[in-house]
């Protein structure tokens, strides 16, 4: 029987399905982009012989009817880009002939039914941009005929199941923005038909395997924003020689290293930004017309032209910070004080202004699009009255990652204004109005807007200007604004090539009095929060004095000082960056249900700001004897610290007797809770994750001790003070006990401030404090991470109660691997790597501070770049 097609012009009506016997022989419904509203009618199940149902890109809402499970002849179900919600009906498993299921860009939630494992004939499964829960289902590995699998921004948790190794027919794999546990790439070894691999922000760790480029020959390889280590595999290097063309190689934002080879210049688009590649920077690679993005690596170069990527290598220092303002008309021509930004860019590109004042970097590909629109222009006649057409008429567009940089800024506090207008997705109920643009905005590496939708922010209106204001501290003459698409929203409305971040203009202006007489860094530093002056020895009766200058946004004040033991009102001296009202609203007036912790100087509450950003608020105890001093200590110290492995301080509030610190919120709590907390709170941390935790803490401490302009000793490194973000990246928290440490002093003698069991013996017994006290504490933490047990556990038998004592006992018996957490014994791990990490932990707990390595040396040892001693002597403080 020949197929009959339900014409697109036919009005959507349940009645038309019910009437006429001929409709029962319809084999294909094609009603894409027809402005259909209402729910998906359950009566569709009456079309007994239906083989294809295409209802994508409409306004359909409600649940997917369970009755559709009766369409036993159905081979294709297309419901993408609607407004469907609810859970996937279990009845769909009856569709035994189903080959293609497209449900992306909806609002479906809940767990995928386990019974879906019986979809043995499925070839395409596209479910990106939904709100599912739970882990990525193992049963997907049963779909052995699958050729396309797309799970971008589904809210599912990792790791990627090992059962995916069964998907040997897979050609197109896209998974992004996972939460939870990570995975390596071992599951791909047998997936030799893969040509498109997108695993962006997918918690991937380990090295890139050699079979990528050997048995697997991808045209598109996107592994950005992961935790990959090692170098680019030789097999990928050999692909061009075999005339097997890899067209897009995206490895940015990882921990890759090594020397780059000439073969990379044969690839059309290469992103290696934000890694640790080194060697000489080839000038031919960094011309603006070459699609190779190499910024934020460790290349050596004599190239200093502001237009070159050498300008943005790691550790770059502006010798003469001179700028205090930047204004950019993104995607548009010069206008007023706004500089033009009309460079076309491309999939992996970088452009810097001729004066080196600002730069823009783009990485990413508009997937499946024939036309790539890096700059978009709206219809000026549609732009809302009162909205400036010069500023909002054009915009810079990007498929995934777009960064703007303000360079050579004087240090200080700045107001950042971001201007947006949705000029691609239209108003009304037309097809072009169905698009949903959703992206995140980061400033200085901190997410300030999550799931930002320009049209929603403008009250549901397109062509209307929206401004977002932020206060940002610049401490290293450098400001980064990052617009990031996590995979949410719609992919192809109104066209495939315009779905990512969109920004109209950027304005950066100072919140301090501009120094016009000198460009010297030391002079410009006077415009920001000025450091902390640590005082004399408490035991001699001196008063510790802390001096700050806080620059007020509209009312600049002269510098004042405050004695540490003075309870004088602080409001006249310090201008709050957050009002008490804002913080009360965010925390529901410090509701006990929002309390997530408590320390010696205050309680910590989680909160949500009006823009949706999660925060952690530390409420200092008003009667704490040293509360005011430590409050100021934290503000002055943390505000100057910027590192991926340090918890960031957003701001503070001082109103009346309230002393409040506002930090970034860490979704996954502390290392202590993940390792030793209640069973339901513990995480299944595999060995690669534990290794990365140790390495991340080491990087953070190395920065505190050696990498920042201030020499900082934390004094209380412990598992409770190691927090995890949503990607389980470790971050050191709680600088309330941190001390500024003069460069010309070998140690300071001070009151004890730390936690027993983590304190170095010379500090616990004599109050003798150097950065090696932190090294000792780090060693204890490392042993806890490896063993999965606390430093003291009285539930164990006597000889095992104290972790350090037990570790040395195993070392002397040459049984160090017995220290490894029993939960890891049957999992994959490198014995050599485990032993290396344990040996580093033991070395860090050496009795003599002089014998303990510096934290930068620890990093090198953990990475295997520096040989670590394997012969140790039991410290005298370990008895028996």
Q: Which superfamily, in CATH terms, is the homologous superfamily of the domain at 671-862?
A: Transferase(Phosphotransferase) domain 1
- Name of the top-level CATH class of the domain at 671-862: Mainly Alpha
Distance, first to last CA: 89 Å
Strand count, sense and barrel status of the largest sheet are:
13 strands, parallel
Radius of gyration: 29 Å
**Strand order, sheet with most strands:** 1-2-3-5-7-9-11-13-15-17-19-21-23
| Percentage of β-strand residues | 15-25%
Category by helix and strand content: alpha/beta
Secondary-structure arrangement, i.e. CATH architecture of the domain at 671-862: Orthogonal Bundle
Helix content: 10-25%
Instruction: Let me know the number of strands.
Output: 51
What is CATH's topology name of the domain at 671-862? Transferase(Phosphotransferase), domain 1
The general outline is globular
Walk me through this protein's architecture.
By secondary structure, the protein is an alpha/beta fold. Among the domains are: 326-510, Galactose-binding lectin (Jelly Rolls), CATH 2.60.120.430; 538-664, Phosphorylase Kinase, domain 1, CATH 3.30.200.20; 671-862, Transferase(Phosphotransferase), domain 1. The protein is built from 14 helices and 51 strands. The strands form twelve sheets. It has a 13-stranded parallel β-sheet with strand order 1-2-3-5-7-9-11-13-15-17-19-21-23, with no helix packed on it. The protein starts with a strand and ends in an 18-residue tail after the last helix. Mean pLDDT is 80; it is low at 1-22, 303-307, 516-576 and 736-751.
């Amino acid at each position: 029987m020949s197929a009959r097609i339900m014409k697109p012009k036919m009005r959507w009506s349940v009645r038309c399905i019910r009437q006429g016997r001929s409709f029962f022989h319809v084999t294909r419904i094609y009603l894409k982009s027809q402005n259909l509203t209402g729910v998906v009618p359950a009566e569709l199940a009456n079309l007994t012989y239906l083989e294809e149902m295409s209802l994508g890109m409409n306004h359909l809402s409600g649940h997917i009817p369970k009755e559709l499970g009766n369409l036993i002849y159905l081979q294709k179900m297309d419901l993408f880009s609607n407004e469907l919600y609810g859970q996937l009906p279990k009845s769909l498993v009856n569709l035994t002939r189903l080959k293609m299921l497209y449900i992306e860009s909806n609002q479906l939630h809940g767990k995928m039914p386990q019974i879906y494992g019986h979809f043995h004939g499925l070839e395409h499964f596209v479910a990106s941009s939904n709100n599912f829960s739970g882990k990525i289902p193992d049963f997907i590995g049963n779909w052995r005929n699958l050729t396309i699998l797309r799970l971008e921004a589904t809210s599912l948790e990792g790791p990627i199941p090992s059962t995916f190794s069964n998907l040997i027919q897979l050609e197109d794999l896209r998974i992004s923005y996972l939460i939870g546990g990570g995975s390596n790439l071992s599951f791909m070894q047998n997936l030799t038909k893969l040509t498109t691999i997108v695993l962006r922000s997918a918690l991937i760790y380990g090295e890139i395997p050699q079979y990528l480029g050997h048995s697997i020959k991808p045209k598109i390889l996107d592994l950005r924003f992961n935790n990959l280590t090692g170098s680019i595999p030789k097999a990928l290097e050999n692909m061009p020689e075999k005339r097997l063309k890899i067209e897009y190689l995206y490895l940015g934002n990882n921990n890759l290293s090594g020397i780059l080879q000439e073969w990379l210049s044969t690839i059309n688009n290469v992103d290696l930004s934000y890694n640790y590649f080194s060697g000489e920077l080839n000038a031919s690679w960094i011309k603006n017309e070459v699609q190779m993005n190499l910024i934020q690596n460790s290349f050596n170069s004599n190239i200093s032209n502001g237009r070159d990527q050498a300008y943005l290598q790691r550790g770059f220092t502006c010798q003469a910070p001179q700028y205090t303002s930047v204004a950019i008309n993104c995607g548009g021509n010069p206008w007023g004080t706004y500089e033009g930004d009309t460079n076309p860019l491309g999939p992996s590109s970088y452009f810097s202004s001729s004066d080196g004042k600002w730069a823009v970097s783009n990485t990413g590909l508009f997937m499946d699009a024939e036309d790539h629109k890096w700059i978009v222009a709206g219809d000026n006649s549609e732009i809302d009255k009162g909205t400036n057409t010069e500023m909002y008429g054009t915009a810079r567009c990007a498929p995934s990652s777009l960064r703007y940089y303000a360079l050579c800024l004087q240090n200080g506090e700045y107001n950042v204004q971001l201007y947006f207008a949705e000029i691609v997705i239209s108003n009304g109920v037309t097809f072009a109005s169905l698009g949903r643009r959703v992206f995140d905005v980061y400033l200085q590496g901190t997410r300030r807007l999550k799931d930002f939708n320009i049209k929603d922010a403008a009250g549901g209106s397109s062509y209307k200007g929206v401004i977002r204001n932020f206060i940002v501290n610049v401490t290293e003459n450098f400001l980064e604004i990052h617009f990031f698409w996590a995979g949410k929203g719609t992919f192809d409305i109104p066209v495939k090539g315009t779905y990512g971040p969109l920004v109209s203009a950027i304005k950066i202006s100072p919140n301090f009095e501009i120094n016009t007489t000198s460009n010297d860094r030391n002079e410009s530093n006077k415009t920001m929060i000025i450091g902390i002056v640590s005082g004399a020895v408490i035991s001699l009766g001196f008063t510790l004095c802390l001096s700050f200058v806080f620059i007020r946004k509209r009312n600049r004040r002269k510098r004042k000082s405050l004695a540490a033991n003075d309870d004088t009102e602080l409001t006249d001296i310090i201008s709050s960056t957050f009002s008490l009202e804002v913080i009360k609203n965010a925390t529901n007036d410090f509701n006990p249900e929002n309390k997530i912790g408590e320390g010696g100087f205050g309680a910590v509450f989680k909160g949500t700001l009006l823009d949706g950003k999660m925060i952690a608020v530390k409420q200092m105890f008003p009667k704490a004897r040293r509360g005011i001093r430590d409050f100021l200590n934290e503000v002055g110290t943390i505000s100057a610290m910027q590192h991926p492995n340090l918890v960031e301080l957003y701001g503070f509030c001082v109103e009346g007797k309230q002393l409040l610190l506002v930090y970034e919120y860490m979704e996954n709590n502390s290392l202590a809770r993940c390792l030793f907390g209640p069973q339901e709170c513990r995480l299944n941390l595999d060995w690669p994750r534990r290794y990365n935790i140790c390495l991340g803490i080491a990087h953070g401490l190395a920065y505190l001790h050696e990498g920042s302009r201030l020499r900082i000793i934390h004094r209380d490194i412990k598992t409770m003070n190691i927090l995890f973000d949503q990607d389980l990246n470790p971050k050191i928290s709680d600088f309330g006990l941190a001390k500024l440490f003069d460069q010309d002093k070998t140690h300071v003698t001070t009151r004890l401030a730390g936690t027993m069991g983590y304190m170095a013996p010379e500090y616990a017994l004599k109050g003798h404090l150097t950065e090696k006290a932190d090294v000792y504490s780090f060693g204890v933490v490392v042993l806890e991470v490896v063993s999965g047990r606390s430093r003291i556990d009285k539930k164990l038998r006597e000889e095992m109660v104290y972790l350090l004592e037990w570790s040395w006992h195993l070392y002397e018996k040459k049984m160090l691997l017995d220290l490894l957490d029993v939960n890891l014994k049957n999992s994959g791990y490198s014995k050599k790597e485990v032993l290396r990490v344990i040996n580093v932990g033991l070395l860090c707990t050496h009795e003599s501070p002089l014998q303990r390595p510096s934290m930068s040396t620890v990093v090198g040892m953990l990475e295997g770049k520096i040989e670590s001693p394997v012969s140790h002597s039991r410290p005298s403080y370990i008895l028996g």
